[in-house]
């Protein structure tokens, strides 16, 4: 069954210039250009997935004066980067489903706040880090590392990884993926690039300092199209965060995982989460 699905739904990788930087995009489905494709095969709906971590290709940045985003590797820059992609690659009349994981959930809320005219029919916020990040169990550990000792991490990563041959990096990554029983369809070599790690640490430091107060105003405005999914064993957004938001928005679609799925669900529980999203979308899709 899995092999049949992979054949029916093609996945391809593209690198595009977006917001002044070269950006990796993974596209699922038989489409390439939503603006110029007017055939019957043109999709009526785009599912836009915003992952919970940032990836950079390498140390080279390509700038375009017309699209350059200030501080693109920071928290605000990453939000504007996602909006820039939608403005330049997705028609305004395209209906959207947004799926944000971890800090991607914060990006999703900010996108709805900044561009409320987006035709979003449903937004899923999975294990959402949308408040009090530095106060969470993991946040209390990450905050001093990312905010106070970030430059030590930069130097250490550069000294250890910069001289490391590409073959060794590739071997390490493939071995880790094998231990986690993950397939490697696209090369993730950039994960061990010092520049990529520095960007991740820089963004992480901003998350700890700026993701503090829950944006109740935006949640209230878009509550009818939001689905929150919290974990019971999530050290980034503990169960008390779920209880607080459930109390403040009792009419909202705010769920607590009953399967002990971890925050980093992609490693072993991706199918369970995908099934949950698919089931939740049935009513929305039936109305299209």
From TrEMBL:
Descriptive protein name: Lipid droplet-associated hydrolase
Compartments, as annotated in UniProt: Endoplasmic reticulum; Lipid droplet
Presence of keyword Endoplasmic reticulum: yes
PANTHER family documented for this protein: LIPASE, LIPID DROPLET-ASSOCIATED HYDROLASE
Keywords of this entry: Endoplasmic reticulum, Hydrolase, Lipid droplet
Superkingdom classification of source: Eukaryota
Enzyme type, top EC level: hydrolase
An MF annotation (GO) of this entry: sterol ester esterase activity
Organism taxonomic ancestry: Eukaryota, Metazoa, Chordata, Craniata, Vertebrata
Claim: Transmembrane helix is one of the keywords in the record: no
GO cellular component term, pick one: endoplasmic reticulum
InterPro entries: AB_hydrolase_fold (IPR029058), LDAH (IPR019363)
Transmembrane regions: none
Reaction(s) catalysed by this chain's protein: a cholesterol ester + H2O = cholesterol + a fatty acid + H(+)
